[in-house]
Amino acid sequence: MYDIVIVGAGLSGLSAAHNLLRRDAKLKLLILEGKDRVGGRTLTQDVPAAGGVDRWDLGGQWVASSQTHVMQLIEELGLVVYPQYTKGKKVHHMGGPRAKISHYTSSMPSYSLLVLLDFVQFIWKIDRLSKSVCVEEPWRSPDAVRLDSMTFSSYIEQHVWTRELKEEMAVCSRAVFGVEPSQMSFLFFLMYSAAAGGVVQLLETSPGGAQEFRVKGGTQQLSERLAERIGIERVQLSSPVTAICQGDDSVEVRTLSESFSCKVVINTCPPHMAAKLQYQPALPADRQQLSQHMPVGHMTKFIVTYPTAFWREKGFSGEIVARPSNSCPFSVTFDATSPSGSPALVGFIAGLQAHDWSSTKLEERRDAVVSSLVRYLGPEASHFIHYVEKDWAQEPYSGGCPVNVMMPGMLTYFHPSLRRPFGRIHWAGTETATEWCGYMSGAIQSGHRAALEVLARLSPHTLSQEERKAAQGPAQPNAQSDRWSYVTGYSPLPVALTLTAITLCATLLLVKPQISRDVIGQVIAWLPARVTKRVVP
Amino acid sequence: MYDIVIVGAGLSGLSAAHNLLRRDAKLKLLILEGKDRVGGRTLTQDVPAAGGVDRWDLGGQWVASSQTHVMQLIEELGLVVYPQYTKGKKVHHMGGPRAKISHYTSSMPSYSLLVLLDFVQFIWKIDRLSKSVCVEEPWRSPDAVRLDSMTFSSYIEQHVWTRELKEEMAVCSRAVFGVEPSQMSFLFFLMYSAAAGGVVQLLETSPGGAQEFRVKGGTQQLSERLAERIGIERVQLSSPVTAICQGDDSVEVRTLSESFSCKVVINTCPPHMAAKLQYQPALPADRQQLSQHMPVGHMTKFIVTYPTAFWREKGFSGEIVARPSNSCPFSVTFDATSPSGSPALVGFIAGLQAHDWSSTKLEERRDAVVSSLVRYLGPEASHFIHYVEKDWAQEPYSGGCPVNVMMPGMLTYFHPSLRRPFGRIHWAGTETATEWCGYMSGAIQSGHRAALEVLARLSPHTLSQEERKAAQGPAQPNAQSDRWSYVTGYSPLPVALTLTAITLCATLLLVKPQISRDVIGQVIAWLPARVTKRVVP
């Protein structure tokens, strides 16, 4: 009989366990993991490189100074970060089939004046909107239902003027979420941006931006070192959970071959994976609908190692943003030279492109990647040492990367069940985070939150009064309160007709004062004397 | 060792089996069903009524003369249909919190002139669009990516002028699909309408419309009689399939306690249920994504039986269309008096309303339904005999009703995997139909199609050359062919600027011909003599 069984030994599960044991070392705790390793969507591997062999991240790799939870953990575990290399020319190739390759060194691509204006107005609009979103309870944001009833793509169609920027936003959507702009709710995009501190933070390598730092030795170390601190004996690998059965006093967590009793479960599976488990009693309807409205992105990451960082020598930073085409699989690449100096490039085949290219052979994809690198950085790109890639859609117990997105209607209708415990089951995972949701930092934050909830249940004495209050979460919304008042929006036609009538009258008054004077005179004459007296004393 | 194992004993699985055995009686065939009954989303039950007890459908209940597959089966099985009762006043209560209850007898609600105009223009637009959609390969329809990048809600926002019609369309969406307009792709709505022969067909009780006929004795009889014809010993109930493992020469289908070997599997589970099975090897990425983009609707159906059909006596047809509010759970009701004359009303709590009301107690829902009936039909409505309801979201191995919808991005990106066999697994179920998709008729059509595919594999001699060709399905699309040419849409700003410039010039020419003549004269004077000669000979 355990106190707590945690499903998943990724960053959220391990952070939860770490926090639980730090507060109450007596807790009997077990972590069950389907994979044969810890780390979830982080994975650090040896790759043949200039210096013989070196380590690279094939999963999550960047952290930022603004990501307090992961930065704190990095420091605590004695790990070191170093900045993403960004010096030199960046390659930019967007804007239709006949677009030219352009180079720039500032933080802003070399847009034409029109596209630049478009970019500024669009980013201003979405950033202002994202600031109005309530991350904890997004359905309470102003205009939530309308924003959640449209796709990100619909908003782009309505508010972006230029074809080039439309394409650019699609590339951003693919690179950040692993999905097309048509495949997520616009309110979700805003909430995700808000959780990161702003739209620009998601895209930038500048201080605070999501691509600011990398971790020396790889990000999987975070999970490995956490597992060591927790105690390896508490982490059982290759044990995929199949069912969670709740009784009156305990929960039974079943794997293919074993069964474990406990008081509380923390389920850290990404929503589409959590939906595959058997639950007894069945999950509530809104939680079931929630997981049906949160598909996972598709991302294939590749590392290409080189004998020399030829791009740096030629004045390139290694950053490429490429328009989608049948010849170039990737959306973006970056310099990935290791801290010990082994030159490498990292790139992402994302969203629909990942989907299209996943049906081709590895060699074909590799050749397409390398010949695109040759096109953008020069012939030296063809003399690589090693090409390695990871298609996260094929990874068992992940099934996709980097994050589960939310479809229209999910945030306003089913979101309350995202973090709400179901009986003895508590939910964690980066999708449930409110700060840097979808990132490693979010995973850690969600683990801390779930640990608080469980401690409030099992060891309330270890918590301060504030923490006990925080662990209860927001008051459960009265779902039916004024739901149906949303449905009735304003009606543009009567408004437009009224405005037109007013404008016409005003024009008439200005252009032909005589007519209006006549009309007013006649109206006054027509009105009964009593009324006239009051109006024109 | 079986030839075929069919997962699911609903209408599609049973129709497939029926067709298979009719063509080749030697086939060894087994149907595995999770529920303890056949019929899937059809269910006929005894309900206390005026005549003691009578039978009503708590699942799918209507058929139409335009639904050839189900009408043919009804005839073949010796069943009888009778028309939906529609005589008398219909109750219509839409259009904002202060809207009045109105009555009408025609097929069109008593709209104001403005709403009527709006209705006509909107239905004309979406019907014309739906006629342009290719049901078999929707991604090939004109403008498919744009139509699939928006929700039905976004299209309504852009093209409906009046608040009342917006509300009306939301009620239609709930009643037909069990979801809000924000929760489905607009292209899916169009394809679904096209598969039914037009938008109006979905909504009407008139000849050919989806609500035209009911089946005497209930629709579950279709499945029961099919099961008898196939042989009850071939249908194994209460045997939920958990895993499908494909080897080189055979497939192993596992339930909780047994395992069956076969050559081919027909999987008729609705997509969100099919996703819960274990597959070895894993389903292809696009099929996995498909099921993540097809949530199921939410529908609760209720039957209220009465001593007399008091509404008929008062001149009502029993049809009510009600605006959503906190007091009225249902969207629509109809007369449901049985062929033997037991008076009853049937109604639907659908979409978000089903979701909201599912958390209340049965008694509370019943009282709210009855008091709404009192409000719309008179005080006699409170003297009911029995109230019975079925929340399909709670039904094991269904999890929702009436149909799985498609989210934006699904149709253009993942749809090809909807009917494409995966190794020895073939797909059926009403969601895979191309005629009356989502209806009983569609389920039967999909069963026929899957049977053809399997016969082409196992007993090709039983098929005509045409059938063999049809069984291959459409040529697999070359997914990458010109996918990325879609991305580049037109750019409205340059077009608008050009049009403005032309308009200004034209206005100038008309208003001040002298100015234009001067300008043209100067331009000609400025041009070199040679060029001028060619232009003005």
From TrEMBL, chains A, B:
Residues that bind substrate: V241, F348
EC number: 1.4.3.-
UniProt-annotated location(s): Mitochondrion outer membrane
Binding site for FAD: S12, E431
InterPro entries xref list: Amino_oxidase, FAD/NAD-bd_sf, Flavin_amine_oxidase, Flavin_MAO
GO cellular component terms, A-Z: mitochondrial outer membrane
UniProt domain Amine oxidase: residue ranges: 11-455
Membrane topology: Single-pass type IV membrane protein
Cofactor: FAD
Catalyzed reactions per annotation: a secondary aliphatic amine + O2 + H2O = a primary amine + an aldehyde + H2O2
EC class (word): oxidoreductase
Pfam families in UniProt: Amino_oxidase
Single annotated GO MF: monoamine oxidase activity
Chief location of this protein within or outside the cell: mitochondrion
Top-rank taxon: Eukaryota
Stated family: Belongs to the flavin monoamine oxidase family.
PANTHER family: AMINE OXIDASE (PTHR43563)
This protein's name: Amine oxidase
Native organism: Clupea harengus
